Request: fold
Amino acid sequence: MKFKKRYVLFVVLCVCFLYACAPTSMGSNAWLDTPVQHVRNGDTLLKAGKIDDAFREFSRAKELDPNYSPAYVGLSLVYGLRGDDETSAMYLKKAVNLLKGTHQK
Reply:
């Protein structure tokens, strides 16, 4: 009888240890998927000369909030660095219009 209790206790402890050592799933980091964070990442990538990666970050910021003007400023910078002045000016005008709209409210 005493052996059976020790065996059960041993099994329970083993299960607890195995459960504690199991890999944890990476939860959602919603605070990382915000327009502000993507624009910060884009700025950092631009400074590092990674224009294509910065473009993806600014585009994601624009997807998350189409009214977030810094995303359009970042896209304007990317297109300007790529030599597409027309598209760069379009995004810059969009950013200015969004800023005007927020100040008038």
Summary: The chain has a mean pLDDT of 84.
